[in-house]
Amino acid sequence: MLQGLAAIERGEKPTLDDWRRCSDALNHLETLIVVMKVAADHQGLLADAIKALVATGHRFRDGLPIRLDGPGIHAVRAMLEDYSDLVEQLPARTIIRAQRLTERRVRAIQSGKRLAHDVDVMDL
Q: How far apart are CA 97 and CA 28, in angstroms?
């Protein structure tokens, strides 16, 4: 995921896989923070990071390069670093449960069952 972010930040031509790696990690982190409450986002950067990646996805659909703006880079980088720290510290069963919950949530959103804080689920 950090390699994906590096490609989006500085790579010659970031790919959809780079974007997906970052997006998947943020979705997983959102489950850990919002649903499972095993961590907190005191600065509100998670929402900023998700919005930045959604905007980047929209840009790509409009034929523009996969790039983040300065605040987006800051938010996504901070959240991915937090996610990396959490993955190293939490028990495997917690990570697996979060992954399963994330997959269920994405499927629910795709079927029209959205929560107030949900953003676009993009199939790029």
A: 10
